[in-house]
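Annotated sample (chain length 580).
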Amino acid sequence: MHAALLVAEIFRIIVDEAYLLDPAHCASLARTCRAFTDIALDALWAYQYNLAPLIMTMPSDLWTEEITTEGLSYLRFIRSNRSSDWERFDFYARRIRSFGDDQPFIEDIFPRACISHRIFRAIERRVVYAPVFPNLRRLTWRWPLGAWEIDDPEIPEEFDMEHWKYSAFIHIFLGGRIKSISIYNWPSHRANTFDLLCNISSFPSECPSLEELFLDYPLDEDSLGSEFLSNLSDAVMKMNRLTSFHVRCHFKPGVLEHLATLPSLSTLRLYWLPEHRHLLPPPSFSISAPPPTPLFRNLRTIDIKTLSIRPFISLFASSPQAPLEDISIELLTIEPTSLIKEFLTALTNSNGRLLDSLKWLSLRSLADDEVHVQDESDGALYLRQIFVFHNMAWFTWPSTYIFRDWDESTILDLAFAWPHLRSLDLQVDDSRGRPPTNLKELTISLRILEILVRNCPGFCSISVPFDARAADIKERLGHIQGLGKTTPEDPASLWVNTSIIREEEEGDLEIIAQYLSHLFPDLDGETFLWESKIFPIGTEMRRRWKMVWNIMKSIRKERAAPHGEVQLWPIFTKQRRQGG
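Output written by the structure step:
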């Protein structure tokens, strides 16, 4: 055996690679040599989805596996447990680093079974003396810890409601080394809301090293829901090492201000749902005096779903030194244009690190209202105002708030202002089966694509309404051959589902197909999206886009064919001339 294999750091790398290929390899390595045992077993047991594998290491006369009438595997104790019964359990439990989180291969090699309430009670009695998983770093709590999915239609309702018995046990897995807690997918019920309410209050003291908190839990609109949100707020105010905070609920005033002062916070995801607005007042953000240190000074990502953008205007205005790279906001209601203008002004007037750091800006409207008609008194929005973000790579904007300077001249300047641009998405709602009223204002010529591809080397995705005319691009075909690049790891996508295509002369569709194929050579059926409710099946517009796609597929086959093979795409021209 090579001496290098006895170096723990080297062998640990080998074992980690073996685990990725197949976790069963780690078991084989553990049996190969006594020097390998600990490191190989650490890798094998590091990620556990539920308690079943641990229970099955205990004496066989202690537990039994039953198959319920519903076909579910169910583990339970059949006699009283003794301290000696837990030796193998503890031997493997100390190796677990992540519990409850799904991992590749675990479904295949480790059993999934529901654990009886009595087993949890037995573990709870032992936690008084030592943590159940002393080296646990990541806890993901879901009912019933990986046995099955909650929404599985095969699970009877009365069995699904067993979660009431288990929600009180989350505290037995808490420990001083935990850095990440994720709680989600519990069916809402007053009993487990109360259990979670009690447990969340202990997070700051039981998990002082906590860095990541993810909470996705449905709340009922009652007094207990309000108390839960209040306890959550109080607990978060005591967490001073958070790097990632992701919740789907409201919280009390002061929490956002506390998060703003944390030097460690890098990711903030807040999904404030409409059903929670009766439990607590709307969120707010206000700083009464200039802070001694910059707010959100290490925040990289902010992802928000909210009823109003108002509280975040002051947040961005107060945090000019935040090195934000990703800003994603989803609005559940139609906001006045004046508020959107204030939001853009707060961003662009930062004069701080944001101007160089921002790479992703996404504003989406999830409201079901008709297109918002802008009031002239609200002021106008200008796309050029956002050109100050020199490293912009992904830009998404709703057509609900149209830019007054949205035209080909502005898009041309955009290509030079954002040389790192990869994706340009103008969110146009086509779900109603008819074009939006402002579609004409949003439409630009297809020739703009060449400018974007030529000036932005990484450009690979666009979704804007086009007016596809062969006359606009015919003269450019000889200048763009080889301009587009094939990137298998990041394939291009082209959304033309709200675009019109003109067939003014014979051969126009072939010209358009060649143009798109030169600029986006790796488009396929999943990344070239032309079907739309705006153009139902059987309409002339649908027929034209389908013909363009068929020609593009033939061009791809021609490029992939051996040299000297006959060109395929002119066949479509011949067939159309013959009425085929």
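Annotation: The radius of gyration is 29 Å.
Annotation: Confidence is low (pLDDT under 50) at residues 145-161, 566-580.
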